[in-house]
Amino acid sequence: MPRLDKMIDFLTKQGATRMEVPSDHTCRLTTPSGDRLLNRVLTRAEVEAMVEEVLPDDCRRRYEAGGTFLFAYAFSEQTFAVQISKTTEDLTLTLATSPGAIEQPKPSSSSLPTGTPAPPVASAAPTTLGPESTQASSVSRPETPRPAVAAPPQRVAQPSGPPSHRDYEPSAEPDVELIRLAEAAAAYDALDVLLLPDEPPWARFVEGVRPLEQFEALTPARIEELVLPLCPGADLTAPTLFGLPLGDRYRARFTVSQTRGRLSATARLLSAVPRTLAEIHAPEGLAGLASHTEGLILVFGRAGDGRTTTTAALVDALRRQRETYLITLSPALEYVHRSDNGIVSERELGTSPASWEAGLDAVAAERPGVVTLENLRAPQVLSAAVRLSQAGILVIAEVPATGTVAGMAALCRALRQESPTAVEAFAEVYCGSSFQVLCRTRNGGVRAAFEVVLRSKAIVASLQAGETGDLLAHARSGRAQGMVVLGEALLRLTQDDEIGPTEALRAACDKQEMRDMLTAAGRPVDDAG
């Protein structure tokens, strides 16, 4: 399907009249209530590929010469107006429901080849784009569209709409020292890099923290040099969150705060491209959740144990299966999803529960196919997520928790604060959940162990009754469905000699149960490893 068809489908679903796609700038949507940025930037190569898929043959010479011209495009028994504006520096594709919805630019003489007259402004006829001219042409989908040109993930600009935690953009590219720090920490499978005044950079690992001694101690002035250009104008009297790329291979989620009047920062390290479910060794039951088209999926985990990575992998899997309109909501943008199979809108909402509730209510009117949420805890936010699920939207929510049972119990308590019937509504839309812990492997790497609890009659009944303590017992009896409990996952990794018994015990939620399981399997904790 040509990308323009996807744009038209999105345009009509949003009730919009116009969509502008400029190369290397934020896409803009025009609706009856005003303009809205779509938080998506396409490279010139990507816009060129989109144009090549639908360009009529009689417009090709005009396109190669440059300038501005219009043509009609037929889709689903309706004709849309397409305007192409091309200069040596920029390329813009504008799609509209009618020629009158396109604001014709006034090209300068420098933007047109010598001797080329300025293109005429088209009239608002329903099926033609002006008087008979060489620039007005009607076209349906070409039989053999050219494939889109792949490009690396682009920086996503700030959208309009719901309140944001960040209303600033970096004034400079990240300092090369930050990129070197990310590369050095990632080489050791570190999770975070900590920048503290008068200390060398520290790295946080699964098993603890240690300094990166190959780097010198950072003075307060040096930390300001590294951090302040990334968040100009930010109010640093409170912790400030933002995400951005560090070179070509990594992204980082920064948390900047003040300690006794001096700046400190933590950078959570992420890969530049979301990892796949296979790459994170997701069990079959977790991978199967990507086939759902509505309902609520919960991703439990402790801070730093990979909740966001798992959520991104789920989103990657479902977007490989089908085209969809995806909205991501987070305090700070971490992974960036490409708009190569549908539309992606990634929004930063800060940390206030009120801003999250408003953000969720706002996206309900946009009718997305999938919504992802980070840090689902506040009762009003949870209730809004349930309402979205009831409306036929698939919601994938990250929930900070020390285990599946603890996380479910906390959510049920929060829902009861909202309404006596809220827990029943939650149980009705529940599709499944995962809980994960990161383990240090014998070869020095990092591997996630997963617990997966899927929807079943017994699970739903336990949730409706508030008997969350029974969930793992039901999960053990649901192995055939793909359910897994954490202790069994850790034991399997131990038996496969990927992790040692001591590491399995450290990662387990129920220490005594894990110790008993290891002993029964002939791998007691006092074994070497």
Describe the structure.
- It is a single chain.
- The protein has helices at 3-13, 44-54, 60-65, 176-187, 220-227, 284-288, 307-321, 353-364, 379-390, 404-418, 422-429, 457-465, 471-476, 486-495, 501-507, 511-520, and strands at 18-22, 26-31, 34-41, 67-75, 78-86, 91-96, 138-139, 192-195, 202-205, 208-211, 240-246, 250-259, 262-271, 295-301, 324-330, 342-348, 370-373, 394-400, 430-440, 446-454.
- The strands form 3 sheets. Strands 3-2-1-6-5-4-7 form a 7-stranded mixed beta sheet. A 7-stranded mixed beta sheet has the order 16-15-17-18-14-19-20, sandwiched between helices. The protein has a 6-stranded antiparallel beta sheet with strand order 10-9-8-13-12-11, with helices on one face.
- It is an alpha/beta fold and 529 residues long.
- It contains 16 helices and 20 strands.
- It folds into 4 domains: 3-139, Beta-Lactamase; 176-271, Beta-Lactamase (2-Layer Sandwich), CATH 3.30.450.90; 284-484, 3-Layer(aba) Sandwich (Rossmann fold), CATH 3.40.50.300; 487-529, no CATH class.
- The radius of gyration is 26 Å and the shape is globular.
